[in-house]
Design a protein that fits this description.
Blueprint: H1 19-50, H2 60-83, H3 86-92, H4 98-113
Keywords: Membrane, Transmembrane, Transmembrane helix
Transmembrane segments: 27-49, 65-88, 95-113
Length: 114
């Protein structure tokens, strides 16, 4: 007959991210990300679509529209990389990947159709 010893329960670890702090941390991380990365990217995407070149291969307006579209894609890529950092990813969630993906897709399509 074997005697079974009751298992010891390990004390639960407290999470570093407390639920009460998460809302404030979302504002602290999300507001600058939106204001300094995604808002300028949206503006660049809008400018890229707003510029209408005449159709010549050496039109400077075409070059400007292409540059703004490429700058929008670069800003969105930087924002996606920043959002993938574990602190941002854990705090902000998956929806923060949607806006830069849509903006970069639109800007890429605009760059390809110029």
């Amino acid at each position: 007959m074997t005697h079974h010893r009751p298992r010891r329960r390990r004390p639960r670890r407290e999470s570093i991210d407390l639920p009460g702090d998460r809302g404030c941390l979302r504002w602290v991380l999300g507001a600058p990300l939106a204001a300094f990365v995604y808002l300028p990217a949206a503006w660049l995407c809008f400018v890229s679509f707003d510029l209408n070149p005449d159709g010549g291969p050496y039109d400077p307006v075409r070059d400007d529209a292409l540059f703004t579209a490429q700058a929008c894609v670069a800003l969105c890529f930087a924002g996606l990389l920043l959002t993938a950092v574990p602190l941002f990813h854990r705090t902000l969630g998956r929806w923060w990947y949607a806006a830069p993906f849509v903006l970069a897709s639109l800007a890429f399509l605009r760059a390809q159709t110029l």
